[in-house]
Amino acid sequence: MGAYVLNSSDILEFHNYPNPQYVGADHFATRGSDFTCFHETKVGTLRFKNALFPHMHVMDLRWSTNQELLLMGKDAGDNVNINFHMAGKLNTRFKGLNEELKMRPKTHNLVFSPTDGDINHVQANAELEMFHISFTKTFFADIIGCDDAWSEKVLSNLFFNRPFSGVAGTLEITPQMLLLIKRIRDCSATGPFRNLMIQSATLELLGHQINQFRSPKPVYNEIKADEADKLHELRSYLDAHFLDELSLSQLSRVCGLNDFKVKKGFKLLFGTTVFNYLRKKRMEYAENLLLNCSLSVEEVAHILGYEHAHHFSAAFKKHNNASPSKYKSNIFSAL
């Protein structure tokens, strides 16, 4: 059975669901920290929080689909759109861009597509999570400057109303970007202070993105699209099972690739080895336990699977340049 074809206007019109690509303070915006939830049989369940300003629209969107969908875009608008894709798979074809944009977990890109006709493809029973930002064309052009080849090309495309993307394909969301997204999501301020906090963090996030666009990592053509999908799925598996004892052969079975492709492909795609990624996840989890839980170093070592606390301390010091006890005391003395 093929995908169900749906016009985006069918979603955007029900229950006053706001268009993520719309910018303007007179449109629908949520209040407070709670998600607004909409459900429609064909579309699935949409939950969102958003903040609207005269020159930008920030939306934290979660989408649970019921069936495979082809979502046909309408009313593209004259805005620059950014997707920090946090979870799930979304494939989009934009009119005027040669390649399909394949968004995978922890990837991002920027698109200007003033012509109607984008086609979004999502699978059935998918869980998508997107942090979406839109800027008006004039505001975006004013703030990026014109001091390098990337910005010159972007400004030319905007001036002549030509579709473009920040880079070919997608780039990985960096730890700094994740921290800024978390800061915006968790912002508990109210009134004008909240408005300023969200806008300043959003502009800082844009700055990190543009900096990455200006010096992107090379695109590795030797990784096939289906293999890249499997490696993204493997990384999601590691994010959920980083405390488990995992072997390379187990990971190969998880993603359906042989040992060589797991080792080489993961390093090419994510810039680190599988097991270095696991160690980093474990040490970040240890940091969280030391800072936010009343646990001793020995207890944290046990949770992370270390038989001896001094082995954990050595690994932690290698990651943080400080022992667990020193790290904990330094943080709390700074508070």
The CATH first-level class of the largest domain comes to Mainly Beta
Percent helix: 40-55%
The figure for the number of domains is: 2
**What is the CATH-assigned architecture of the largest domain?**
Sandwich
The number of helices is 12
* Structural class based on helices, strands and sheet pairing: alpha+beta
Shape: globular
* Beta strands, count: 13
- Main beta sheet: strand number and arrangement? 8 strands, antiparallel
Distance between the termini: 58 Å
Order of helices and strands: EHEEEEEEEEEEHHEEHHHHHHHHH
Q: What does the radius of gyration come to?
A: 22 Å
Q: Spans with pLDDT under 50 lasting ≥5 residues?
A: none
Give the DSSP E fraction (strand runs of 2 or more residues): 15-25%
Query: How confident is the prediction overall: mean pLDDT?
Result: 85
CATH superfamily of the largest domain: Regulatory protein AraC
Instruction: Kindly report the CATH topology of the largest domain.
Output: Jelly Rolls
Protein name: AraC-type DNA-binding protein
Keywords: DNA-binding, Transcription, Transcription regulation
Domain HTH araC/xylS-type: 232-330
GO molecular function: DNA-binding transcription factor activity; sequence-specific DNA binding
Question: Keywords, please?
Answer:
335 residues; alpha+beta; Jelly Rolls; Arc Repressor Mutant, subunit A; 2 domains; 8-stranded antiparallel β-sheet; 5-stranded mixed β-sheet
Q: Can you describe this structure?
A:
The chain is of the alpha+beta class and 335 residues long. It has two domains: 4-214, Sandwich (Jelly Rolls); 225-334, Homeodomain-like (Arc Repressor Mutant, subunit A, Orthogonal Bundle), CATH 1.10.10.60. It is built from twelve helices and 13 strands. Strand 2 and strand 3 form a beta hairpin. Helix 4 packs antiparallel against helix 5 (191-214) and helix 10 (297-303) packs across helix 11 (309-320). It is globular. InterPro entries: Homeodomain-like_sf, HTH_AraC, HTH_AraC-typ_CS, PchR_regulatory_protein, Tscrpt_reg_AraC-type_HTH. This is AraC-type DNA-binding protein.
